[in-house]
Amino acid sequence: MLFLLVLFPLAVAALALVVPxxxxxxxxxxxxxxxxxxxTIVVLVLPLRLDYDWVVLDALGKLALxxxxxxxxxxxxxxxxxxxxxxDRPNRIFTACFSGLLGLLSLVVMSHHLGLLxxxxxxxxxxxxxxxxxxxxxxxxxxTWKYLLVGSVGIALALLGTFFLAYSALSGGMQxxxxxxxxxxxxxxxxxxxxxxxFILLLVGYGTKMGLAPMHSWKPDAYGESSGVVGAVFAGAIxxxxxxxxxxxxxxxxxxxxxxxxxxxxxxxxxxxxxxxGLFLIGQKDLKRMLAYSSVEHMGILTLGLGLGKTAFFGTLxxxxxxTVTKGVLFLSVANIQRAFGSKSIxxxxxxxxxxxxxxxxxxxxxxxxxxxxxxxxxxxxxxxLKGALDAGNFFLAGLFLVLLLLVFIxxxxxxxxxxxxxxxxxxxxxxxxxxxxSTAPVVGLMALVLLLGVSIPPPLRTxxxxxxxxxxxxx
Amino acid sequence: MNDLLNALLMIMLVLNLxxxxxxxxxxxxxxxxxxxxxxGVLPLxxxxxxxxxVLIAAGSAIVLKGSAIPAIMLRALRDAQIKREIEPLxxxxxxxxxxxxxxxxxxxxxxxxEVVNQHPGSFIIPTSMATIFVGFVLLTTRxxxxxxxxxxxxxxxxxxxxxxxxxxxxxxxxxMGMLLxxxxxxxxxxxxxxxxxxxxxxxxxRKLVSLKE
Lengths: 476, 213
Hints:
The complex is a heterodimer of chains A (476) and B (213). Chain A is mainly α. Chain A has 19 helices and no strands. In chain A, helix 3 (59-85) packs antiparallel against helix 4 (92-109) and helix 3 packs antiparallel against helix 10 (228-255). The two termini of chain A are 24 Å apart. Chain B is globular, with a radius of gyration of 18 Å. Helix content of chain B is 74%, strand content 0%. Chain B has one domain (2-207). Chain B has seven helices and no strands. By secondary structure, chain B is mainly α. In chain B, helix 4 runs antiparallel to helix 5 (124-141). The interface between A and B is large, with 45 and 41 residues.
């Protein structure tokens, strides 16, 4: 049953390669999204065997799997609207890669072998490259090239870090291994020097994949040049999987008693990411690049939360969920706006409220949500992280956190308000594209989730997050 | 056995310097292919008794790194109709010297490390670090897309040298996955370089500067 989560998307991808009709092929995606969500719920609810040799679905994996699957569910319907809009373009590769990516991400979340984890993450990088290149123009080539080169080098460093980790076991006199469970069990015996070197390399490697500053250079380009539905999957699903990889490494460091060392680096990179994102958000004219920097910011928040330690774990893991659903709302609504104006620059996009009442409102509400305004979900998790910082006695960081959140709010607010308010200049950027049920319903669904999670966390989700916190803390 | 191993590792280091000093891209691709074949042979020396999985892993490494990947790269080169790297950021001779310096530092610094394994006194870690360094030099100072891909391959080769210390830790499935990822990666990158060449009529990555703040 567990393996179906990986095999089903791969099978759909293979089917997409075979189906000869561009017109009907995109309909495979809702089938995939719905099927995968049903499978995920079955796996989470029924008492199935979740424990194979290297493939184990623990509470952390369950949480990430749920995020990815829910986001894919909504995105798969948006993708149909997107591919309908570009119906004269061949979509064989797009559909296959979009499906295959879900399979590889599912493999990432259940990998308990660091080699397998690396293979799945590298695979997800490669399979997602053609998604950025769908527009087939000079800009998207440039974005794809940067994504592939920076991503591949980053992940190569993660591979070296993985090898260092195995060597630290050897150097500490243990049986050499890359199995996560064995490494955690034998963590106190790991050679400290090699473990620290491994952590740095893995942080840089998987941090590149998450888009932490200063390894984020590919991110605005890749998010900016790809379609909104791809951006949503990148910012919500791929980053979640990459963060999970970082959590695995953190688990080992923690078991080895190296939390202080790991936390310091996490705090530095987390704060730096938030600061860099804040600075680049000021005066940002491009809506999608704005969302990319917002993603850098939220990866920074997650990293910071992890660095703060036990008191902030609950907020951090909850923020993984909230970031995923909110990023879905933002990217999908911006995609609709971009199609209606034929541009994503606020030089052209004005008065989105009037032209696209639904998508314009969703962008505004999504912006309020992602910047941590109540009553939306990210407010709850960001508040929990702040409380975690205060509980840990880290008043300086708590203050800095608030200042950076304010900076981001001002920067993003300026851009978003210009885009949604006012009147659009006559004749500029007018297209016949307007909101349709298919293009807005998935976004409304995601927005409803953002609101629901902000008002009250459903008990099963709370239990899942609590379990995940316990797993992260190293309790059985 | 150790002497033979170290001799092969020395050849790796010399090949690194060749890639830095050569301006002909075909030569560079061939050198990296030879490195790939060497990498396939090395695990065979480390195993006392050869088992089927070891032979499969070594065989596929030799086939993929020694012939399949170079073939893809040569094809990309032919499509692009270019022969030489343009004058790099750091000239060929200075980058050669830089590579030699990096190699010397790696040998001095990492040679001191206690290698806890059944292979004491081997140059595995210094060779790995020096090769990774050379890969980074190629990646950062060359302008042609294909040279940068070669830099990435040299970097990967360096990382695979390190994995020789951990042969027992990496199961066959995972090793195959790593090789497959590398192969598909180069395949996808080559397609993109082909598109770069068609869209920009050049493989000069300095032309890829439209996206910025």
